[in-house]
Design brief:
Elements: E1 5-9, H1 14-25, E2 29-34, E3 49-52, H2 58-65, E4 70-73, E5 75-76, H3 81-84, H4 88-93, H5 95-108, E6 112-118, E7 135-136, H6 150-168, E8 172-177, E9 180-181, H7 194-208, E10 212-216, E11 222-224, E12 226-227, H8 228-240, E13 248-250, E14 255-257, H9 258-269, E15 274-278, E16 287-290, H10 293-299, H11 307-326, E17 345-346
Parallel strand pairs: 1-2, 1-4, 2-3, 4-6, 6-8, 7-16, 8-13, 9-12, 10-15, 11-16
Antiparallel strand pairs: 5-17, 11-14
Helix pairs in contact: 1-8, 2-5, 5-6, 7-9, 7-11, 9-11
Length: 351
C-alpha cells in the first residue's frame, strides 16, 4: 500500500511516538494527535504536524482523520494492571474514540484504518493456569469473557472495525498487542507495565541499599513481552496487507513467569533481591502468552527480539531517566489515584 500521509491518534504516547519517528523516516507526512499537552508527550517530532485534541469528541476526530491516507488508532485510556482494574469506566469511555475515528475514516475515504487492540480481549477462562504453555489463539476471544472494562472496550471496538469494513467498506486492520515495552515508555506513576515497573524497582533497590523488591501476586503469573521495534514491524505488515483483515496476535511467543522477569532485571542490574509477594495487589490473569501460529502462516514472520536483549535496553534507558529526574535519590512512588488522568495514551495492549 502506498501511504503518503498518516495520522496517529494517541501519538503522544509510547508506541505512537516510536511509530511517528518510523513513518517520518520513510518520508511519510505525519499528523500526530493526542489529548495531552505536548509537554507531556513521550516524544515530540518537530517535523510532524502536532495537534492537541480530544478524540472522544466527534468534530475533533473528524478533523484529525481528514486528508490522511492511513489512520492509526492507538488512542485510549489505559495503563498497567494497577490502573485498568481500578478505572474500568474510564477505559470503557474509549469506545467513543474508535467510533468517531471510524466514522471519520468512512466520511473522508481513508485507504487504511489500523486499530490497536489487546490481549485483554481473550476469554478469562482460558487464562486460569500459570503455565508458560498458555498460548492464546485468535479464536480464543470467543465466547466472550474479556478483561472487565478495558478488555470489553477493546473487543467491542474490534467488532466496530469488522462491521465498518463489511458494511461501509472501510479497510480496517486489527492487531492484538501483547505487552509492548521499551525505551520512552511509562516507568512510574501507576500506569507502567511489568517490565518497566520491575526495572525501576531494581534500580531503586540498588540506590537505596535496601535490597528488597515487592512483586504483585505470587510471581508465577506467565506473560510474553514484545519489544517496541518488533511491534512497529508488525504494525506495518498488518496495516499494509492487501489480503488479511481479521484480528491477529502481535506479540512475542517467549513466555516467562514474573519471577523469571525479575531474574532478568536482577541480572542486568547486577544484584539479587529479597522478594516480598503482595498477594492483595492487582495481578491480572494467571497465564497469557501469544500464540504466533497465525502470524507466522500469514506473514512468515513473528516478533523475535529476545526478552533479555530488549529488557537490557529498557533498563539502561529507565536508569538514565531516573538519575536525570531524581539525581540518584530514591523517589516515593505513588500510584495514580482512581479516576485520575483522563487522557488518551498509546495503548501497549497487555498487562
Amino acid at each position: 500500500m502506498n501511504t503518503r500521509s498518516a495520522v496517529i491518534c494517541g501519538g503522544g504516547g509510547f508506541i505512537g511516538g516510536h511509530l511517528a519517528a518510523d513513518l517520518l523516516s520513510k518520508g511519510i507526512k505525519v499528523r500526530v494527535v493526542d489529548v495531552k499537552p505536548t509537554s507531556e508527550w513521550y516524544q515530540v517530532h518537530p517535523e510532524a504536524e502536532n495537534i492537541v485534541a480530544d478524540m472522544n469528541l466527534r468534530d475533533a476526530a473528524f478533523a484529525a482523520v481528514k486528508g490522511s491516507d492511513t489512520v492509526y488508532n492507538l488512542a485510549c485510556n489505559m495503563g498497567g494492571m494497577g490502573f485498568i482494574e481500578t478505572n474500568k469506566g474510564l477505559c470503557m469511555i474509549s469506545v467513543l474514540i474508535n467510533t468517531h475515528l471510524l466514522m471519520g475514516a468512512r466520511e473522508y475515504g481513508a485507504k487504511r484504518f489500523f486499530y490497536a487492540s489487546s490481549a485483554c480481549v481473550y476469554n478469562g477462562d482460558k487464562q486460569q493456569e500459570s503455565k508458560i504453555e498458555t498460548f492464546l489463539k485468535e479464536e480464543d476471544a470467543y465466547p466472550a469473557m474479556p478483561e472487565d472494562g478495558y478488555g470489553w472496550e477493546k473487543l467491542f471496538s474490534e467488532r466496530m472495525c469488522r462491521h465498518f469494513r463489511e458494511d461501509f467498506k472501510v479497510p480496517t486492520r486489527v492487531a492484538r498487542f501483547h505487552n509492548v515495552y521499551g525505551p520512552f515508555g511509562t516507568w512510574e506513576g501507576g500506569r507502567e507495565k511489568a517490565p518497566a515497573a520491575i526495572c525501576r524497582k531494581v534500580i531503586e533497590a540498588k540506590l537505596s541499599g535496601k535490597h528488597e523488591i515487592e512483586i504483585w501476586g505470587d510471581g508465577q503469573q506467565t506473560r510474553s513481552f514484545m519489544y517496541i521495534t518488533d511491534c512497529l514491524k508488525g504494525i506495518h505488515k498488518i496495516t499494509d496487507s492487501e489480503t488479511w483483515h481479521e484480528p491477529i496476535n502481535l506479540g512475542s511467543a517467549e513466555g516467562v513467569t514474573i519471577n523469571q522477569l525479575v531474574d532478568l532485571a536482577e541480572d542486568i542490574g547486577g544484584i539479587k533481591l529479597k522478594r516480598n509477594y503482595n498477594l492483595n495487589a492487582p495481578k491480572g490473569v494467571n497465564g497469557r502468552n501469544s500464540d504466533n501460529t497465525l502470524i507466522n502462516k500469514v506473514f512468515g514472520w513473528e516478533p523475535d527480539t529476545r526478552l533479555r536483549d530488549g529488557l537490557e535496553k529498557t533498563y539502561k534507558w529507565i536508569y538514565q531517566e531516573y538519575m536525570e529526574k531524581y539525581g540518584g535519590k530514591v523517589a516515593v512512588q505513588k500510584p495514580a489515584p482512581i479516576g485520575a488522568h483522563v487522557r488518551e495514551k498509546a495503548t501497549a495492549g497487555a498487562r
